[in-house]
Amino acid sequence: MAELYRKMQLARAYVPFQQYTRRFEPFDGLMRGTIFPELFMPYRPKEMIGRSEG
Amino acid sequence: MWLYEKKLQYPVRVSGPNPWLAKNIITQYGGPDGELSASLRYLTQRYTMPIPEAKGTLTDIGTEELAHMEIVAALVYNLIKDAPLEQIKAHGMDGYYADHDRALYFVDATGNPWTATYIQSKGDPITDLYENMAAEEKARSTYEWLINLSDDPLVTEALRFLRMREIVHFQRFGETLRLVQEWADRKKIY
Amino acid sequence: MRRDRRELLLRIMALDFTALELNLYLDTHPRDARALEDYNKVTQELFTLRQEYQERYGPLIHFGHGFSKYPWQWIEEPWPWEMTF
Asked: Which of B1, B70, B153, C16 is the one with CA 20 to 30 A from B64?
């Protein structure tokens, strides 16, 4: 990450590279929608800022 | 060349006939941020991608989106196939029924037909990758609004799967963007 | 669809998804040796499971990618959107 910040330029978007370490079991991954724990970001309507419903 | 695998990517289930939910979910079949748009956007942009990683990513995500189109179609099909006409009328799907019966057609939630203006192919790989990252975010938002609307927990499971795929695709396009930026920088130096 | 067929198909779907995820990862990380090793392992496992399924229930993939018994099994129902899980 430090390397990335040094090289960053203005007026560009950057997404850090994922580093593969471990994965969910195949069926668990299919149910979650990803096999990568670090990318698993489920939707929780209640946490949405500025919204009353959910 | 493409091959068809005779199975869904995700095991689709519905609780029963629900034309009202089908009428909303169909936007991910033929709407602006739907799966047809996604697939065709990536599969047509790939020809002008400059590096192998980008050609691979667009080919593979574009192909996966076809599988998502099939998941959305399976949802809509199963939500309307056994719906009685009275329910179709009561659920506001009568307009769709007048034109298509219970067939699948590429429209958004309010009946607008699919159009090529939903996608873009600019020739500049960096511009195209930004478009794709935005497209994944728009699709993610749409799935969240559909999850908020859904009154069928089995359908919600499939919507959650499809929403998660948008996040993974965003990550891959983000990494592809980095690789293309590095490629463009190298080209400037030498 | 019978339970044993559904269970075998779900195992294939789950492994297929793992292979797809590793494939997309490798597209942007072509030199990640561990991910590549896992991809090849999963591909080998998938090959065996697909063979078992196709032997029992007919081709999963058309156009010369799976054998058929008589009569032509490819058109046998259920099609994917007709399957109940």
From this structure: B153
